[in-house]
Specification:
This protein has 167 residues and is an alpha/beta fold. 27% of the residues lie in helices and 24% in strands. Helix 1 packs parallel to helix 2 and helix 2 runs parallel beside helix 4. It comes from Lutispora saccharofermentans.
């Protein structure tokens, strides 16, 4: 299986809690005004990676606490990201995902997009919602605009409602 990637950051401290291995998906339908990563918008750019090779690279770095699926839009390549997330969880590492889709939208479309359900099921923390330039707030941890939420996915799925994390 292959994945189209805009870039990799193998040891980031700004894309989630701890030291993160960040995979930036190539392609984003949201194209948010003021996006910090506009090079990811086109679905035509990026580089092709074999997902097994990325998993091996993740496994080889003992310093990382987990991975972050970012973008672009990782839910547009949900099958590949779900596979990587599942393998990462099996290593005892956590998974964060950033999505311009809101949690409720993902949940309401998970039956028609089965890999969305699989990806969400392997995510520990979801930062949801589009970046809104008018709501930019540099004081926020791990998000760019005040409309974005940091969601505890396991608790949210268990309780059947959104459970926010206080970070």
């Amino acid at each position: 299986m292959f994945i189209k990637v805009a870039g990799l950051e193998k040891e980031s401290i700004v894309d989630g809690k701890g030291i993160r291995y960040v995979i930036f998906a190539q392609g984003c339908p949201h194209k948010c005004k003021g996006c910090h990563n506009p090079i990811t918008h086109s679905f035509d750019g990026g580089s092709i990676y074999e997902v097994d090779e990325l998993v091996k690279d993740i496994q080889s770095n003992a310093y990382i606490d987990g991975i972050t699926c970012s973008g672009g839009e990782c839910f547009e390549q949900a099958e590949a990201f779900a596979f990587i997330a599942e393998k990462t969880k099996a290593m005892g590492k956590d998974v964060w995902a950033y999505s311009g889709y809101e949690y409720d939208y993902i949940i309401s479309h998970k039956e028609e997009k089965p890999f969305w359900k699989e990806l969400l099921g392997n995510v520990d923390v979801l930062v949801d919602g589009p970046y809104i330039e008018e709501k930019k707030d540099l004081s926020l941890c791990f998000r760019g605009s005040s409309n974005q939420r940091i969601i505890d996915i396991k608790e949210s799925l268990t309780e059947g409602k959104i459970v926010l994390m206080n970070l």
